[in-house]
Known about the structure:
Layout: E1 2-3, H1 9-28, H2 34-49, E2 51-60, E3 63-70, H3 73-77, H4 81-98, E4 101-108, H5 126-134, E5 142-149, E6 168-172, E7 181-186, E8 191-193, E9 199-206, E10 213-219, E11 222-229, E12 234-238, E13 245-253, E14 266-274, E15 278-284, H6 289-299, E16 304-310, H7 333-339, E17 346-350, H8 360-371, E18 375-379, E19 401-408, E20 415-416, H9 429-432, E21 444-449, E22 453-458, E23 461-469, E24 472-477, H10 484-487, H11 495-506, E25 517-522, E26 525-531, E27 538-543, E28 549-556, E29 561-567, E30 572-578, E31 581-587, H12 593-596, H13 603-611, E32 619-623, E33 630-634, E34 645-649, E35 654-663, H14 667-687
Parallel strand pairs: 3-4, 3-5, 5-6, 6-32, 8-14, 15-16, 15-17, 17-18, 18-24, 33-34
Antiparallel strand pairs: 1-2, 2-35, 7-9, 9-12, 10-11, 10-13, 13-14, 19-21, 20-22, 22-23, 23-24, 25-26, 26-29, 27-28, 27-30, 28-29, 30-31
Helix pairs in contact: 1-2, 2-14, 7-8
Amino acid sequence: MVFDPILQIKYIFIFSIFFILSIIICHYYKIKHLYLRVLTFLAFLVFILNPQIDKKNAEHHKDIVIVVSDMTQSIIETRKAKEVETIRKDLSSQLKEIGNIEQINIKLNNNKKIEQYNAKEIETSLFKEVNNVINSLNIERLSGIIVITDGQIHDFHNYNKLLSKTPIHYILVGNKNEKDRILKTTNIPKYAVLGKKYEISVNILDNTEKKDLKTDFYLNEQLFDTKYLSPNKNYKIPLPTLSIGKNILEIRTEETNIEISKLNNYQIHEIDGIQDKLKVMLISGEPNMGLRNLRNILNSDPNIELLHFTILRPPTKRDLTPVKELSLIPFPTQELFAADISKFNLIIFDQYGLQGILPPKYLDNISKFVVSGGALLDIVGKKHLTKDSLINSPIKQILPTIPLENISNKRFKPELTKVGKRHPITNKLKNNYKEKPWGEWTNYTRSQLTSGKVLLHYENDPLLVVDNVGKGRVVQILSSDSWIWQKSLDNKGPLIELIRNIIQWLLKNPKLEENFINLNTENNLIKIKLNSISSGDINAKIVTPSKESLKLKLKDTGNGIFEGEFKSLERGKFQMIWKDKTKYFIINDMNNKEVEEITSTDYKIKSYVEKNNTFTKNFNIVWNDQSTPKVLRIYNNKILGGKNWIGVIEKNVPKISENSKQKLFNWYTIFMFLVFLIFLSWYKEGRN
């Protein structure tokens, strides 16, 4: 019962005090028929308090049962998905027959979204998904959770203690005695410093045989080792020399016919080969305005260790400089250009002229250094047309141009060639520099191209040339005043980005390679971006890990980037073939928890429960040996299930579906009764 007063409470309180005082006075003077006054007061009080009955029509919520279907990689690979789906349908029918149950289905699928190279995150996250659902539910309505799985659950740490009173039934598919051979590896680096020695650990877990197992090791498609390894023992295997950029490591052990899956007999890893410190030698001639820019760009890269020499005069030249101001340390030509030259990654000549400091045999060493895998950047200056030019030394054999008769000193704007618009060094310069048109340079050495690719030119004269020489690389900049782009207010241009890209290309940064492949995967859609200086759409072929061939059309975007996409649920090593080229790439490493262990087991569930018995007494395990367990109603959690049945608790959580108020007394009736009492009191007291 509730009250809905027609007067404010304070007025009712004042009236009540006044009336009680009047009753006390009447009682003191012994006035007869006092009970009539009391009844009148009570009737009036009921009238102004307006009592009402609060009517509530009680109903009950449906109980909630969560059914989780494990459709993760371990289920798919061992061909248990059909069994899981059959059980789910049987359970759904039984729950409908019981009635008053709301069924919520969760499908575990770790292929929802797989970004590149996050293989270690692929696992069966049962409780994470359950928590996401129960966060939006009234936990009191949860009657039970039924999980159809192979027992390979990896996130017990996400178990929610709110579930401690809810029956959790694990229906295990497969059988208890499945056999499997598992290739396990550890200590495989994601990044490896070139020149550093690495050892990986290999262990073959096997419950099928005890013989030594042939295991092959491949790096970038080349077999580098074969071992016969005893099962269940740890072995250290040294890695061979890696290449800069992506390296594909494959390990394969022999298979047996009695194991449930052969997927985990093979592992594939991608190792990024990187330089710890990239050593760059900068040799400059006379000081010039561009030298500071070049030094600043080199010093801004923390991975570059710069050694800079400025050679101002030859040793035969005499001047009046006091001896005490001369360096007492001789120029270390023997160490730098003979014994230690292989320790450098890049040598830069900035407007350098032959001055006798570097004899021909050392310059020949530089040529050999480039051919064997090193890099050279030559920024030409005024001496390029004199007898002191590098073209008159053994360096000539690796330079991509020959100077003509003159230097052009007219102002001009460098332009991208057709190749320059597509080459990774220069293809983004226009888009990334949209402030205004490029500024002008004031000189360049007219030269004849003998090899390589021209990226910048003016009136068909090369300005920037790149070339591959043997295993190494060479770049020539045929102007001494590209620095104007950085210093001049009126002649701005993308100098810093250009020089950085040139240096990174010389140092073999994979992203600036002509045939670099960039991948992005989501669900079963694989998107590919390919760097290429060719033009026109490319028809390519994709060979999947299962050797299926797929057609792929890469569309030319016009700036040296080709885009295409294909669909595949496979994970592992793919091959892309186009024109006369072949590239290998990995879609999501296969070395994840989902394929490490794929046999059906109750071990993980039981071991977790034993360790956390204080709040996990609500579990029940049923092997699906013959038929789907029977679902029954239970009324407490003392017995959750048996060998062939599982229980869901009846909750019957009430809900309020309607709320209405009804007056306890009719106003007209109580008013007439009040008038009657007043009249009766007056009549009785009047007679006295």
